[in-house]
Structures are given as C-alpha cells and as structure tokens.
Amino acid sequence: MAYFEKAKKSLVRAEIQSLRVVQALHLLAAFTFVKGQPIHGSIALTQTAQLSLHLKLEVDPDDSPWLQSLTEEEKDERRLVYWILYYTFKMIQLQTSSAFGFPDNFKSNTVKSHRSLPNQEFQSKTASVYHLCKLLDIMEQVLKHARKIPDSIELILSNNFHEDLLKTLAQWYTQVPRQFILTAENLVNFLASSERYCVLNLSNFYATTICILNRSKLYLTGKLKKATLSPSDFSNLFIAVKASLEMAHKIAQLCIQLIRFTPSVTNSESYTEIEAILTGGFWKQAIGLGITCFEAAAVLWYYYCRTDEVFSRYYISRAKTSEAKTREWIRQDMESLKSSLYLLETSLEFNILSIQTRASKPNRISPLLDCMEGMITEMVKVDAGGKLKLDQSNSEVNSILLEMQTLSLEDDSNSIPVADAQDPRVFLGLLGMDVDGHIKWRGRYEESWRQFWMTK
C-alpha cells in the first residue's frame, strides 16, 4: 500500500493539469474500487471527472481549435481516454442501485471513436470500447425498466417499451464490426490481443442485457399457471425463457473456455498456444465477468428450481431434447460459473488462483459467490424432490442478507471491514426472490419487488 499512498500524494501535489494526471487518477479510482473501497473510489473518480471536464475531454479534438497542433495519434489518445472514462463512469453507475454522480455534461455525442489499438488480427476504424459504451447506454435504459416495480403482472406480460428495447439492442448489434463478435474460432486470438477485456465484455454484456430484460417474465413462469394465460401470453413467456436460457448458456460456455486456458487450475499439459494462457493478472482485471456470471446463474437457477413444469416441458419439447439432458447442462453451466467466481475471488486476494478454496477475507466477488452456492444447494434439494414454492421461506433457518463489505486499504493480509456494508456490485440482483428459502439480496428495490411477488 506504500506505493498507493505515494501515488496519491503525488497527484495531490501535481501542479500541471494534464491528460497524464487524468489517467493516473483513473487508475487510482479503479484500484480502490477493486480493493473493496467504493467510498474512496468514488472520491477519486469525482476528481477524475472534474479534471476531465476542465480539459474538455468531452469535446472532440477536431472540434477544439486549441488542440489543432496535436498529431492524429495524440487526438486519438484523448478520444481513447474519454471513452475509457465514460465506460468506467457508466459501469459504476449501473452496478449501484442508488444514483451515482455521473457528470451529465461529460456525456457527448460528438466525441469520435478512436481507432483500434495496433493489432494485425483485428484492425478496425473503431475500437471495441466505443461499442461497449454504446451498449452500456442501452443497458442503462434496460435496467431502469427492469428495476421498476410494475403496477400489475399484465404490464410485465405486455409492454411496448420492452419490445422497443429489444429492437434497439438488435440495431446496436448490427453496428458492431464483425471482427469484434466473439466466436469459438477467434477466442484464442482475442485472448492474446490488447482488445481482449472489451471484446469479452461486448459478448457477455450483450447476453446479460437480454437476460436482464427478460428476468421478470422468467419469474412469471413460476408464478402463473398456463390455464390463466392466453395463447399469446404463454408464447410471450416461452420466448423470454428460451432467450434467457440461450444467453445464460452462452456466458457459461465462455467461462468454460476461459477456465480451460487457465492451466494453473486445470493442470493441463497440452498448452501449445502460450499466448492464450490466462494467469491471475487476467482474472483480476476481468471483473466484469463476475457480474455476468451472476446474472446468468440467476436465470439458470430460477428455471431449474422455480419454473412451472408446464413451461419446462414445453421448452424441452420445442428444443427437441430431454428433461435429463437439459438439467444436466444447466448443472454443468452452474459449476463453470461458480468456478469462474472462485477464480475471480481468489485472484483479488492472492493473485494465486483456485477453483476449490475461497478467499480468506470477503471482497466484492464474495456475496455473488455466496449466493451462487446457495442456488446450487437449492438445485440439489430440487433433485432430491424438495422443490421450493415461489414465495415459500424456510422458517427454520435464519435469513441471510448478502451484502458487500467495505475493506481497508491496508496490506491484503490485514484487510478487515472498516465501514458500513453496501449493496453488492451487480446489475440486477434477485428482484425480491429468496434463494434456498432464506438467502436475501441487499438492494434498494429488493424489498419492493418482494412485496410485489407476495401480493400479486
């Protein structure tokens, strides 16, 4: 932590307000957020925003007469810094259910995308972070829609805004350069490229957005009976279930591949592509993966444990598979998602990876992993014949409220909670559902959703 304190003091004393200082402040903010100190991180991020506005990063260099002396490479660097900051601000805002102070005047429709970073495999006129920021703008609208408690179940079943968001998302997807679309064939090359984190997030956040948009509809499959639904409403719910399962499966399958390229936990000796090997440093920086793992797990868990048999049988018949095969791949997907969270949690503490040992002290991944282990426990009970009803709680077990502990910035071996706990950093949470009858999620809108499901 001595290096952190020295860096912070140096920035405080800095007299020259420059792009380099903005970049340094951004790194400090990112460091404190990852270390479980959102209060300090928010302070550093606010300072970053203030200096960025002072330097007018929200104005494209081509529209800034005072910057005409810059080379094209220097202009591109300013654009890159702008979009990285925009991504950071937006990510923090979307992960907190309370309003985060995103500077409104920092938003811009005029800053161009910088060119992609030098990479022979993936040259493009635009870089992936630009398209990622555009996706986060759509996700912001989706989250506002998904978090809002509706007046009635009918508004979940039929909502024009829901359809408009799906169209907006589809339009965004068509505008993403094909070389940034992740496939099994190009995954290895991307993992060795400078674009890897953004491209992974492009793929996973797109899938996650679809899961989020359909979450409340998925929940209705455990609440409503087919006899109470019109054919169009039943079809509507089936489409939501199918899309959610497909996207959750896509996220889990990517996790399986990432784990396969992490030889320290797979003990594989067959690695010939050295550039694709993933280390603790990769997992520590792939923090967005943890959020998408949680959202995917929420879909798989709910379908497995709560969705009514009428919907599951219909899905199985349309997918031309069997119940046993469906439940098997869901269990496998949940294990891969859990293993990924193990890797993320241990990388933040030790930089030594494990898929079997938990971190000794809580970090931002811990509540996500606690919840997922509860989901898997409930799945085991369902397999044993103990399916939990939608609004049923286990009165014999004390409720657990999952929250994120705020840690000190001391050495990892001494890190302890030092302040009030906060909401875990995810996009949507559980929308009022309890896992395994007693595990609750801390979130500003959770209790209101819980009351909604109980009264409708």
Blueprint (SSEs and pairs):
Blueprint: H1 2-13, H2 19-34, H3 38-54, H4 72-95, H5 128-147, H6 154-157, H7 160-175, H8 187-191, H9 196-220, H10 231-260, H11 263-266, H12 280-285, H13 287-305, H14 309-319, H15 323-349, H16 366-383, E1 400-402, E2 404-407, E3 417-422, E4 439-441, H17 446-455
Parallel strand pairs: 1-4
Antiparallel strand pairs: 2-3
Helix pairs in contact: 1-2, 2-3, 2-4, 4-5, 5-7, 5-9, 9-10, 9-13, 10-13, 10-15, 13-15, 13-16, 15-16
Summary of the model, kept short:
Keywords: Metal-binding, Nucleus, Transcription, Transcription regulation. The protein is mainly alpha-helical and 456 residues long.
Description:
The chain has 456 residues and is mainly alpha-helical. It is built from 17 helices and four strands. It has helices at 2-13, 19-34, 38-54, 72-95, 128-147, 154-157, 160-175, 187-191, 196-220, 231-260, 263-266, 280-285, 287-305, 309-319, 323-349, 366-383, 446-455, and strands spanning 400-402, 404-407, 417-422, 439-441. The strands form two sheets. Strands 1-4 form a two-stranded parallel ribbon. The chain has a two-stranded antiparallel ribbon with strand order 2-3. Helix 13 runs parallel beside helix 16 and helix 15 (323-349) packs antiparallel against helix 16 (366-383). It is globular, with a radius of gyration of 23 Å. The N and C termini lie far apart (51 Å).
Main attributes?
17 helices; two-stranded parallel ribbon; TF_fung; metal-binding; about 450 residues; about 60% helix; DNA-binding transcription factor activity, RNA polymerase II-specific; single chain; mainly alpha
